[in-house]
Amino acid sequence: MSDIHIQDFYRDIGLVLSKLFATFPRKVTLYVEDISGPDQVDEYGLHSERHLSGLSAMIWLKDQGYIDYESLVRQEAIDFAVLTEKSFLLLTMQSSLNLPPQMQQDLESLEQQSLPPYALKQAISNIAILRQALKTASSMNIERIVAHLLEQGFQRR
User: Fold this and answer.
1) What is residue 79's predicted lDDT score, i.e. its pLDDT?
2) What pTM did the predictor assign?
């Protein structure tokens, strides 16, 4: 039996962190549909399991201290959402993860371009690696990187 809901969880976590990093330090409204995809409510007005899983991932991130938000907007969004200091520092630090071959080749090509030190530092940050994994849409890469981030975040407690 495949645990596809865990792969979805990792993807949701990666998307939430990436989207909030892109707007940091502004507090924003983050819609569940932007994370888990379009939703069709049923004849009783209830959301799909996938939608509720995306919402639950957001709530879990707050419970674990990765994000903060002021309120839920029904089951549609989280309002005034922002990364915590823990997440911001985690995402901006240099990645210590052994990268998959294609991502390693991309990084080596950046190093050969003689980028300025700051640009190179950004290219090997956790957020850059996470964004690259999300861009490739490889479930294995996303899971590996998000699990690594969560492990590093746990060690920072």
Assistant:
1) 96
2) 0.84
- Measured distance CA(52)–CA(25) in Å, rounded: 26
- Report the SS3 class of residue 12: helix
**Could you give the CA distance from residue 63 to residue 91 in angstroms, rounded to a whole number?**
18
Query: Are β-strands 28-31 and 77-83 bridged in parallel, bridged antiparallel, or unpaired?
Result: antiparallel
Q: Give per-residue pLDDT as tens, 74-102.
A: 999 999 999 999 999 999 988 777 766 66
Take residue 66 and report the two structure tokens written for it: 């990765």
Start-end of H helices in the chain: 4-23, 32-36, 49-63, 85-92, 101-112, 117-123, 126-136, 139-155
- Is 93 in contact with 153 (CB distance < 8 Å)? no
- Cis-peptide, bond into residue 25, ω within 30° of zero: yes
State phi, psi for 64 to the nearest 5 degrees. Answer: -90, 0
